[in-house]
Amino acid sequence: MTLRSSRWLSGNELSGFVHRTALRACGFSREAFDGRPLVGICNSWSDVVACNGTFRSLAEAVKRGVLQAGGLPLEFPAMALGEQLMKPTAMLYRNLMSMDVEESIRAYPFDSIVLLGGCDKTVPAQLMGAASADVPAIVVPGGPASPAVFRGKQLGVGTDLWNYIDAFRAGDMVDGEFDELEAAAGPSFGHCPEMGTASTLAAVVEALGMTLPGGAAAPASHARRYQAAEACGRRAVKIAEQVLRPSEILTEDAFDNAITALLAIGGSTNAIVHLLAIAGRVGVNLELARFHELAERTPVIVNVRPSGEFLVEQLFHAGGVPAVLNELRPLLHLDALTVTGKTLGDCLPTGGQIDRRIVASLDDPFLPVGGLAVVKGNLAPRGAVVKCSAASEELIVHRGPAVVFEDIDDLVSRIDDPDLEVTADSVLVLRMVGPQGGPGMPEWGMLPIPQKLLRSGVRDMVRISDARMSGTSFGTTVLHVSPEAAVGGPLALVEEGDMISLDARAGLLQLEVDDADLARRRLAFDARPPRARPGRGYRALYLSHVLQADEGCDFDFLRGRSAEPDREPEGMLTGWFGGW
């Protein structure tokens, strides 16, 4: 066995001396690293990201496992992406974090990597970076938070909160009650306890085969979470010795398995963008249409909010993701390789009772096939997505006049105007909030219902945007319209009162305006002065290279296989002479 780290640490020449001295200066004896796999622990802990708040102690559990298996754990930091506090959106910085992770892996003498990820964009960013570096890697998800309890009812962080916000805006809650809700809403570290984006990504990673079985759903504070982290530490040593790379696991079959799991759990639409981006990093030709194809054969079999009733903690007690995948056996590629070194089929449980309140069978699902739809038409030539499992059935097929908001500021200023010309049949359109328009494609796709309609009892409408929405959100929302309005997509051409027709079941989204009129509008749009763009820094890089939603919003220069993990590290002596 020849370890990658041996290129840094072996031999009696100057480079080996320099690199061994660097580790000894960190307090390690030569016996601590001589001939042992060096396992990097990529830790996205931060004081401002509650989802990742347990990661200091979780990293210690990983270290125990690495030491038990004979490796040396070396922790290093990664940028922390916090969904609530980062503005305009954590998604703007996902690609930056992926570059941070990739370059750290490339630059240091790690033989394998353990990725500690929790908050929504952290896990995909880490996976994108690790996939590009292609050094053996394993994911440790952070786990869901303890459920909030408000007036005797268990709450998720987002799904239930949106309902209470609507109640507050409708005048059904007073300030004191809302203050009480605020005090109850964030009871612990951990990510959203419903099937939001973070819980969805944890489940998807398990279906991809990039974490150990059962690692997705254990609560952040549960002993099983730490035991799973310890086991991942032990496994990280073995994948270093076996040189089991992400590119061997992240295959076309693995992505089909991940999409099938996403559909079965009623997961977040954000996972679509992330899976497209990860696939692009390993050269798998995954297209948006594949999600629609698999949705037409995959029902929703997990009864968790926002598509169902329970929370992820109840899914954990019902057997977690392994129980779900076991029910999905007929739809999965069971021979897909996983980070365990075994196939997915070999990792699934046999026997045991299933709590059918939480995990249904394929023969008797909670919701039928078609829980997700990809829609296309002259309003979304490259596609848009609808989460049908969280939409109102009566609005899945709908035709209505457009009420257009030019950007998020226009929406905020006018949505509750009592003079806004809007009815329950209207289609709310928000544009200039896509990858470039946002920038970063913020989670603004769940447009608020106008206050005057809320007060009359309306709780859902058709809403269309080039934005995303939180995985905890719900409603009849058409998201990720591609191409976006900011780059001249047809969404930019919609005018007030235009009729828009949606048929999510048939995969159609149409603006009922003739081609000649659209051509006239196109000329007017093209004649507008260009939007001001930043001239420096990361935002300038982002706006110059970000792709559209149907390509995962990655940077154009990061797609495709770029890994060269076996190449001799550059400048072995540079660190000594350059910094001495």
Structure description:
It is a single chain. The C terminus is likely disordered. The protein has 22 helices and 14 strands. It has 3 domains: 35 residues, no CATH class; 270 residues, Response regulator (Rossmann fold), CATH 3.40.50; 154 residues, Glucose Oxidase, domain 1 (3-Layer(bba) Sandwich), CATH 3.50.30. It is α/β, with parallel strands linked by helices and 580 residues long. The chain starts with 5 loop residues before the first helix and ends with a helix. The strands form 3 sheets. It has an 8-stranded mixed sheet. A 4-stranded parallel sheet has the order 2-1-3-4, sandwiched between helices.
Short description:
This protein is an alpha/beta fold. The protein has 22 helices and 14 strands.
What are the key terms here?
580 residues, 14 strands, Rossmann fold, 4-stranded parallel sheet, 8-stranded mixed sheet, alpha/beta, 22 helices, single chain, globular, disordered C terminus, 3 domains, Glucose Oxidase, domain 1, 12% strand
What is the count of β-strands?
A: 14
Principal-axis shape equals globular
List low-pLDDT spans: 576-580
Q: Roughly what percent helix?
A: 25-40%
CATH architecture of the largest domain: 3-Layer(aba) Sandwich
Q: Helices and strands: which structural class?
A: alpha/beta
Average predicted local confidence, pLDDT: 93
How do the strands of the widest beta sheet line up side by side? Answer: 7-8-12-11-10-9-13-14
Question: What distance separates the N and C termini?
Answer: 33 Å
In CATH, the topology of the largest domain is named Rossmann fold
Q: Compute the gyration radius: what is it? A: 24 Å
The CATH class assignment of the largest domain is Alpha Beta
- The total of helices stands at 22
User: Beta-strand percentage?
Assistant: 5-15%
What count of structural domains? 3
Largest sheet properties: 8 strands, mixed
The CATH homology group name of the largest domain: Response regulator
